[in-house]
Design a protein that fits this description.
This protein is an alpha+beta fold. Helices cover 22% and strands 41% of the residues. It has a single domain (6-80), classed as RRM (RNA recognition motif) domain (Alpha-Beta Plaits, 2-Layer Sandwich). The strands form two sheets. It has a four-stranded antiparallel beta sheet with strand order 2-3-1-6. A two-stranded antiparallel sheet has the order 4-5. Strand 2 and strand 3 (47-56) form a beta hairpin. The model has no long low-confidence stretch (mean pLDDT 94).
């Protein structure tokens, strides 16, 4: 049985209104998402505007095929990390 490759993606320029569930919901449109985490400031509780998504190889390839990802008006900066 072949092992499934897992990709960790950095997602920058997130709107401050996006939380873990919204980030996961957006990327699930492209396939299986293992984790989706937005980074929050511990003192203020506000989003720092970036997060991380781990996904399968197939999901990553589907994400990569799309030229531009937009969430609530912000163009996302997505990089493999």
């Amino acid at each position: 049985m072949a092992s499934r490759e897992i990709y960790k993606l950095f997602v920058g320029n997130l709107p401050w209104t996006i939380g873990h569930q919204e980030l996961r919901a957006y990327f699930q449109e492209f396939g299986k998402v293992i984790t989706a985490n937005v980074v929050f400031d511990k003192k203020t509780g506000c989003s720092k505007g970036f997060g991380f998504v781990t996904a399968t190889k197939d999901t990553y390839e589907n994400i990569d095929k799309k030229d531009r990802h937009t969430l609530e008006g912000n163009t996302l900066n997505i990089q493999k990390s």
